[in-house]
Structures are given as C-alpha cells and as structure tokens.
Amino acid sequence: MRTSTLQACVPPGIATTSFGIRLAYSGGNLGKSVVWSAFESFLLFYLVRFAGLDPLVAGGLLAILMFAAAGADVVVAYFADRHGRPDALARLILLGAPLGGIGFWLIFAARLDGPAIVAAVILCRVGYSLCDIGHNTLLVRVATSPRDATSVSGLRMIFSAAGTAIVGLASAHILSIADPSDQRAAFAGCALAGGALYIATLMAAAWATRGIPAPRTATRRIGPAAMLSALWHTPAYRRLLSLVAVQVALVPMFARALPFFGFAVHGDPGWGGSALLVITIAQASSLPAWIMLGRALPPQSTLTAANMLMIVAMLLLVTLPQAGPVPLALIGIAQAGMNIAIWALLATSIRTGMAAGSTAEALPMGLFLAVVKGATGIGNLLFASAIAGHDWHCTSCAPSTSFLLAAIGLPLLGCVAILAMNSGPPYKRTT
Questions:
Q1: Is the pLDDT of residue 216 over 80?
Q2: Exposed, middle or buried by CB within 10 Å (0-12, 13-18, 19+), for 12?
Q3: What is the pLDDT, as a whole number, of residue 103?
Q4: Which CATH number fits the domain that encloses residue 330?
Q5: For the chain, N or C: smaller number of CB within 10 Å?
C-alpha cells in the first residue's frame, strides 16, 4: 500500500483556540476583502474608464499578474514548509502587509497614470500574495477541528462581507461624482483608507496568533516532488482544487461585470456599487444560517445547496427584470454558502492530511491559492474578451451579446459544472 512520503504527525488533543484569537485572526479578512473586492469588481473598470487602457490590455495585465501570483504562492509556500520556521507565516504577513497596502493606495493616487499605475498594481499584488499565504495558512492552526473550521470560516466571511460592503459604498459614492478632478481625488482618498485598513487588520491577525504553536515537522528536508506527490494522492484535495477552479473562474463573472452592467444596461456605472452593497448585505445576513447549516450537514451538501440557489438567482435576473433587488440578494446568499463550504473543506482536508502523516502546512494552502489566482486570471481574460467589442464611453449603446453571455451565461455554466462534480461518490485514498 502506498503511504505518504511526508512523515510527521500533528499532536493529538490540540486545544481549541479562544474566541478572541479567532475574531482577531478573522478580522484580517476585512482588509483583504477591501483589496480583493476592488480588484475583482472595479479595477478593470477603473483601468479602462479612468486610466485609458484598452480592455484587452487591462484584462491581460490583471490576468498575467494573477498567473505570476499563482506561481509565487506555490514557491513561497514550499519554502515556508521546507525551512519549518514557526514564525514563517507571521513574517510573510509582516513583509506583505505594507507592500500591499501602499501599492493599493498608489493604484488610485490622483496624479498617477499609465506605467506608474501598472507598477503600483504589481506592488500591491506582490504584497497581497505574501499575506495570502501567511494569513490563510494560519487557518489550519486556528481551526483545530471540522466544527472549528466551519465557525472560523463563518467569521472570516462576515469580515469579508464587511470589506465588500465598504467597497460597494465607496464605489457608489465615487462614481456618482460628476467633476473628474473631484472623482480622482475621491478615488485616492478612499484607496488611502483601504490600504491603511489592509495593513492594520493583517498586522492585528499576525499579533493575535503569535502564541499558537506550529505543527511538528519532520527533521529531514523534503523535496518539492515528494510534497506534491503526497498531495496528488489525496483525492479529496484534488476534487477540492477542481471545484474551486471552476467556481472562481466562472461563478463571479457577474460580480466582475457590475460597473459595466450598470453602465451598459442602466446607464449608470454607480449602479454597480449599489448592487454590490445589496449583494454584500444579503451575504452577511445569511452567514449565521449557513454556519448553522454547516454544523448540521457536511460541507459538500452546503456547496450543492448554494450553487442551486445561485442558478435560481441568475435565472431570475434574466427572466424577471422587474424583480428588483431580489436576484441580487439571492446571489449574495449563495456566495456566502459557497465560500463557507469551500473554506471548511480546505481547512478540514489539510488538517486531516497532516494527521495522517503529512508535514505540509503551507504548501496545500499555497497550491489552493495558486489555483484560485490562476482561475481568476482566466476569468479576467474571458471577461476582458467579452467587453472588448463595446464602446465604454458611449452611454446610449446597447450591451453586446458577448457581454451578456459572459455576465449571465458563464456563472450558470459554472454552477452546473460544480453540481456535476460535487454529485459523485466520495473519493477513496489512492493506494
């Protein structure tokens, strides 16, 4: 029988972390969500409408940076595991938080244009990637049981929803300003606040978790091939990567389209900010229900229910335009369930693998984040291709068919694919 090549174990009877630690750790998602939501929902629109970049150039830039970040995640995570420093994750956060926060502000700085914006985007992405590895891998230490994984994932989603709400409110306000110079100044001011929030919340998370012991690791050095082989022979982890790749690439396409959808369909790009706020409020309000459901049902069932709800929401958006905010609220509720299920599956699968003999703590998270960012890059390219044929300076032009198919059709396709992938029998470990 094949056994894992990573020989070590997690000590039995690990103590549950306190609520204060969980809260401070989860608060890091507030700052991360501000940056991620701005990148996902409004940065492409900003680069096209305000920085003057061609849609394909802007989308290609964001995709390339995502692919580069994906590769960097795996490399950084591997070396964090290989060297086995207990404070390695905190060091990644302490290095990455200032880079990400300052870079985020510089992207929207009032007098920054062209190449300077590109450099700022790269700086922000580098910092974000370092923090992403450090902060997300700490989830494995904070959530010491499947039950803890669900509750901590729920807390993280609450803070993430708050961060997304901040972006929605800020973008709705900024895009409603008529004077261009005032609008650029508002972009810069809000970005400065967002960058400061990013730095503060992640620093607080690193400080709060400093006393949690790191899992014991093997004394011998393990090569990358052996680590990746051990992960590859964990079918549940392989399935999780496949699920998250489809979910991240296709399902958020409507969220990426919000300001463009508002501009093309409603004649008001500020509609995207208001829509994002509705989605976020519904997402945050539904989190307690999803957490209770997650404690009663396995994460796979939660993921299925959330994707079915997303299908209903997208169909209502198409068939009942008069439904108002109802489809948007359902999208937010579905997103909450998807996120809780995915993160609970991830934390549980990594801790189970470690208990079975894997020393890899950061690498599974790094590989997961690499898939997330690679899939996001693909999604950005698909969406940039869909909007390239539309004149985004023409307020009276009807939206193109390719744009509507990307915004509505691709999320539906993604949900159907996830339901099909998630409906099979559980994998058994390869022997």
A1: no
A2: exposed
A3: 94
A4: 1.20.1250.20
A5: N
